Amino acid sequence: MQQTIKHKKKSVINYNKWGYYFVAPFFIVYIVFSLIPLLSTFYYSFFEYYYHQVRGEIGPNFAWFLNYKALFADGLFFKYLGNTVIIWIIGFVPQIVVSLLLALWFTSTRLKIKGQGFFKTVMYMPNLVMASAFSFIFMQLFSNTGAITKLLTDGGIIGETFSFVDRVWPTRGLIALMNFIMWFGNTTILLVAGIMGIDDTVIESAQVDGANSLQVFYRIILPLLKPILLFVFVTSLVGGVQMFDIPHIFTRTNGGPLQSARTVIMYINGLLGPSKQIGLAGAASVILFMITASISMILFFIMNKEELEEIKLERQRRKEMKASWK
Amino acid sequence: MFKKVLLTLLVIATAFVMVACNKDGDNSGLLVQKEGDVLVIRAWNTEFQDRFRAYYPGYVKTNTDGTDLLDDGTIVKWVIVANDNNAYQLALDSALAQQENAAANDKVDIFLIEADYATKYANDRFALDVIGELGIRESALANQYQYTKDIVTDKDGILRAVSWQATSGLFAYRADIAREVLGTDNPTQVQAALSDWTKFNQVAAQMAAKGYKMLSGYDDAYRTFSNNFSKPWVDENDNVVLDQKVLDWIKQTKEFSTKGYNNGNGLWSEGWQKDQGPDGDVFGFFYSTWGINFTLLGNSLADPDAPKEVGNGLFGEYRVVYGPESYYWGGTWIVGAKGTDNPTLVKDIMLKLTANEVIMEQITRDVEDYTNNKAAMTKIANDPTYGSAFLGGQNHIALFTGAAENIDMSNASPYDQGLNEGIQNAMKDYFSGEATFAKAWENFTNIIKEKYPELKMPAAPAEPK
Fold first, then answer.
1. Phi-psi region of A23 (alpha: psi -120 to 50; beta: other; left: phi over 0)
2. Which of A91, A107, B197, B243 could anchor a disulfide with A176, C-beta 3.0 to 4.6 Å?
């Protein structure tokens, strides 16, 4: 008779389930407030669904690609996308140039700037301000009766009838300026971190070989900063395309002269106004998502061309090796 | 083991704290309420709130949280959402859509509507029948001006709302500038100089010669044109109809802007409000009766905290005349919401604040608003001792008893607010010189497409020259 040896279950205390419990609230909130709305946006974009002032709610009626066709035929969505991109570029180009410059100065071994902590704090502070409050202040200061407009008019710098808020390019310029001030601190700190991660010996050996600062910058620092630059570019583009509170408040929800400062998100927000065009707004959001996703993918592939080629070569070599063993 | 028990107790205690803190204190329930305890009133500004607090006999006091207490224990909860960009309509639509399923204390009981969208809400879907369901007798409303009843009567002839004001339009001018440029500040003579648009434009040229502006901004004269349309903005087939009056307004405003007769301010902007004060250089403002006490008076003072009397800014230096064309501007109606749980209280508020002759006369004497009671207004008009101190002793009520009878609101449409705001917004760029007329019209089309996708726009008109 064999005695079945009862293996005493050694109590390996397993705490895994607690991890799930603690993460669960986040997932519940995410699913309810982010995932479900996201999926229903995709869902409703295929329906005709709006509010007629006299007849009441119309829809939801399944309508295939009606909303998408309407968006493309209209062209309004692309006009506002153009506005968004223009404003973003006007703000981003100076932002990256100034941030790169500041990052180089802060990390330069020759300059040795003192009080860096103070400068970095001051530069980063605008990012902490609430965008809508910031925009509201600018709106008051640059309005036709605002303090800065009066100051500049009295000082003779601009003409008496010059108006920041009634002209297309001043409005766009000011919105880009606000974006610049808010984000250049963030970019500078990221680039400083990126540059500090570059091995000093490489730079020193280049300098020993007779490279001047410009060559060091273009040949060594810039290529090694590529990952950080890619990160900055993509996050700034995605954020820029979603620009909303700054132009919305600065133009008092009107979109500025000739709707030149109306961004895509302002358009989608407007669609949810008295006519509650949920279908069309959904379609616009989906198209925006696809544009953002494809830009990110293209950038990813461009910037990582060499590494992707290496990975491809590796795979090929491995395949050949395996083939040769057979 | 002990740890587990402690942990469970801790979790229960935290949960209990969170739940217990959220529970609202129940009303003491001392009084037997046949109707709801809370009266929810939706409005877009404090005009009605001020009237209610000052003149409703049942009002006791305002609590610290902004609600009012009435003498029968009911609490009045105010929900105020500003009007701009259809925001008030949007919030109201959502609230009314949930009316059936809302808790008794959250049900909308009264909501206010403006002339620009009165026709949208004065029907069986949203509003109670004033005579049939709320029980107000027709004879009680006999003294109201007919047009205030006509605009909120639905297609079956049922009255759906009542108003406390008759909003004749007028032109308020500065007596001091009139004396300097026209040589007189007498209302009859100034009216003779402004009696039609041609004469109005000529006076504008005279003002400019002496360095004054005729109007403050682009939209000041808009209502005078738009309320004289010959047909509604939108017909029954959802086509937008461009009335000749809109083109007239565009032509005049473009001319004024190019010649420098206005300051380029938007309506309700800070520049516009400042222009009404002692530092302004603008001759006059188109205002409706409610505008005098609600807006112009406040803006004309040099010191808003000092007593409102002669010597404080432009108090006493404004006069009113008919202007180049008769018109009306806005007006607010009180609607009893369908599904309310306080019908008796709603009826009482409506009766007291829109049909009670004594209260209406008192309102006019105190705040100079033109109230919706023919008997009271005629009495004041014929009162030789009545004069508005703000208007330098002028009896403006006498001036408007005649005009109020002639107001015709039959061309109002449910889309007015969006179309009026849209055209003013779009044409602003044309007036400031930033855009051509064609571009501005295209902009208008885009704005309306976003707000009201069901409307069909007409072809672009030629630039009005």
1. alpha
2. A91
Q: Which of B84, B120, B453 sits opposite A50 (nearest CB)?
A: B453
Say yes or no to pLDDT of B197 above 60.
Answer: yes
Tokens of A100: 């790169």
Interchain pair A257, B449: CB under 8 A: no
**A150: closest CA of chain B, how far (Å):** 13
CATH topology of domain B170-326+407-451: D-Maltodextrin-Binding Protein; domain 2 (3.40.190)
Q: How confident is the model at residue A3 (pLDDT cuts 50, 70, 90)?
A: low
Fold of the B38-163+330-381 domain: D-Maltodextrin-Binding Protein; domain 2 (3.40.190)
Say if CB B193 and CB B203 are below 8 A apart.
Answer: yes
Residue A213 near residue A104, CB atoms below 8 Å:
no
User: Do B38-163+330-381 and B170-326+407-451 have matching folds?
Assistant: yes
Measured CA distances, B142 to A132, A317, B148, B351, B364 (Å): 51, 98, 11, 12, 19
Do A102 and A186 contact (CB within 8 A), yes or no? no
Spatial CB neighbours of A96, under 8 Å, sequence gap ≥ 6: A187, A229, A232, A233
Chain A CB within 8 Å of residue B428 CB = yes
Q: Residue A126 burial by CB count (10 A; 0-12/13-18/19+): exposed, middle or buried?
A: middle
Q: What is the pLDDT of residues A122-136, one digit of tens each?
A: 999 999 999 999 999
pLDDT at B23: 44
Q: Which residues of B touch A58 (CB under 8 A)?
A: 454
Quote the CA–CA distance of B355 and A155 in Å, as a whole number.
58
Render pLDDT for A187-239 as a digit per residue (tens, 0 to 9). Answer: 999 999 998 888 888 888 888 988 888 888 888 888 888 888 888 988 898 88
Give the bridge partners for B262, in sequence order: B215
Pick the closest to residue B231 from B423, B411, B409, B416 (CA basis): B411
CATH number for the domain formed by residue range(s) A88-273: 1.10.3720.10
For residue range B407-456, what is the model confidence (pLDDT) as tens digits?
Answer: 888 888 888 888 999 999 999 999 988 899 999 999 999 999 888 988 99
What 3-state class would DSSP assign to B321?
Answer: strand
**Do residue A274 and residue B425 have CB atoms under 8 angstroms apart?**
no
Q: How far apart are CA B146 and CA A224, in angstroms?
A: 80
Asked whether the beta carbons of residue A54 and residue B414 sit closer than 8 angstroms, the reply is: yes
Which segments within B115-176 are labelled E, that is strand? 161-163, 169-174
Written as six digits, the tokens of B88 are 């008030």
Q: Do residues B80 and B66 lie in contact, with contact meaning Cβ atoms separated by under 8 Å? A: no
Q: B252 near B427, Cβ under 8 Å?
A: no
Domain ranges of chain B: 38-163+330-381, 170-326+407-451
Burial of A223 (0-12, 13-18, 19+ CB in 10 A): exposed
What is the pLDDT at residue A4? 56
Best mutation target among B155, B413, B446 (most A Cβ atoms within 10 Å) is: B446
Chain-centroid distance of CA A54 in Å reads 40
Residue corresponding to tokens 């990952």 = A227
- What is the CB neighbour count within 10 angstroms for residue B373? 28
User: Using CB atoms, which residue from B86, B120, B443 is nearest to A258?
Assistant: B443
Q: Which residues contact B201 (CB under 8 A, 6 or more apart)?
A: B252, B255
pLDDT beyond 60 at A317: yes
Q: Which residue of A has its CA nearest to B430?
A: A258
- Confidence at residue A227, expressed as pLDDT on a 0 to 100 scale: 83
**Cα–Cα distance, B272 to B280 (Å, whole number):** 9
DSSP alpha helix (H) spans, A45-143: 66-74, 76-107, 116-128, 131-142
Query: Under a CB-based contact definition with an 8 Å cutoff, are residues B249 and B202 in contact?
Result: no
